[in-house]
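Ticket #4471: structure export looks truncated?
Reporter: QA, pipeline team
Priority: medium

Steps to reproduce: submit the single chain below to the structure queue and open the exported record.
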Amino acid sequence: MSIGLPVYNGERFLTATIESLLAQSYTDFELILADNASTDSTAEICRQYADRDPRVQHHRSNVNLGAAWNFNRAFRLSRGEYFKWAANDDLHHPRFVEECVDHLDSDPALILCFARTQFIDDHGSSLGEYKFPVDVNEASRRELFLVYAAGGHIVHEIFGVIRSQALRQSPLIGSFVGSDHILLGTLALRGRFYQVPEILFQHREHAGRSTRATGGARGYTQWFDPSKSGRFVMPHWRRVFENTRSVARAPLTLPEKSAHLWDICRAMNWNRRALLQDISRVLGP
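Actual output as written to the record:
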């Protein structure tokens, strides 16, 4: 089992996050701390834990190459049968990993396992529970893919436990906005997801979160990949393209692919205003 924690300037909550991971009841894992050229005390915090616990590795980049590169680097450095990404500001119940691994071990058809999620604030106080758009444990592969094709929900399940072999066969995290939805949609085409019916994961809402601190689609794109700074992006059309490519590459029958392509068209209709806004930005005033 491998846990990859990509981080950039995460000193504020990093210690609490690492502590919650090292306190897991399931102890047979490696924790990969992937520091993306942080300029705060992140590197020092990572080194301290690597010196203290043999399960912890610290890998530091001298240049910030973007969140997508760093997320993917954390996975490529891993060796476990299962893999989990961890954000530098979230918290995990001590049984989170154990519960997810137990379900994956007992059901080869499962490709990803995650838990119910509670929102917390800067101080760890509850802000309520997050409700997934569908009943994951009862949803068909088609229903689940449509959730990701449509977008619009927070994808906490990207921080679940995933079969490493499935990730190796995927495009991983792309350097564009919404690539986490694309990866999850790709995985949904290949296997079932399971949600543990307990709140074992705490997602922290704060002003420094990447989705709030990057200043819109262009800034968020730069967060994924700094080499794209200043470029115009069409995030909603990019997601249509990537979803279509995921279906084309999936090991499905022709009728199954046709059904998923039709669902992409349905999602385009639901998101038509955002797609038109992408076009209007290209055409200008």
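Status: closed, not a bug. The export was complete when the record was re-opened. Leaving a note from the reviewer for reference: The mean pLDDT is 92.
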